Predict the structure of Malectin.
Amino acid sequence: MPDQAFEGGDFLKTNETILDGGSLSSLYQSARFGNFCYSFEDLSSRDYFLDLHFAEIINTNGPEGMRVFDAFVQDEQVVSELDVYSYVGANRPLKLIDIRVTVGLDGMLVIKFKGVHGTPIIMKQEQTQLSCDVREYANLILDMDNMISAIQGQVAQCEDLKQKYNEELVKRRKLYNQIQEAKGKFSHSCRSLDKHEVSAGHVMVVDLSASRDGDLGILDKAKQDLKSKDEALKKVGRKSTELGSERLNARIRCRKVTEVENKLKERTQMFELKLSASEEKIKKLENGLERQDDHTSS
């Protein structure tokens, strides 16, 4: 459908997909913007119901308030400070239907559009860059949140390893004291054979015949006690080795946490620099809008 019966404004066409446009999607892919009007002649003198169709295809990255306008039908304001993006976002249709209008004897229908804030096409390039910066900062904040969660998890894991390490130290000291106590008892346990051992034919309590293999053979209960203590000592040795491995892993994890913290500091500094630059751009943009509004008012 050709654009006709207009006066003023500029024409724009886009190839982007119009969401929820239905059979009229192609209609919303072109637009006239600026301060302009449509004048339709030779209409019958009677009442009509007017439908207005809008779509934001210029400021597709937002934000709200970049293109705000009023609409007049037969010099009567029917729309006040309409911001299409704030209602439906970009590339989506906004319909104002069943606006009752009266065409007089002159057969004229005049529809006017007047901008309230800025000239969209002039501001598009700077606004798009600012919008991209805002999205990048939002992604940085999300990355920072993920990094903080990861760091907190690493810290909690290190604390857990530290607690296990302390508990293992306590067990190790306890077992060491038990071994020392057992050694002390064994060194003072030499005695003469009792009647049961004599009747069984034993000639000594401690059998040194197995010492060539590096072991002491303890008869009866004393033998069992010493074996238990020896097994406990070996168990302590194994736990000591495992504890050493856990301490090494804890050091590696702590080093990784430090590296993540340094990266977080660097990204935070970068984020602050970009945020500062963005604030300066926004101030410049606001000053430009104020000067343009003053010029429009004058």
Notes: Residues 119-131, 210-214, 216-220 have pLDDT under 50 and may be disordered.
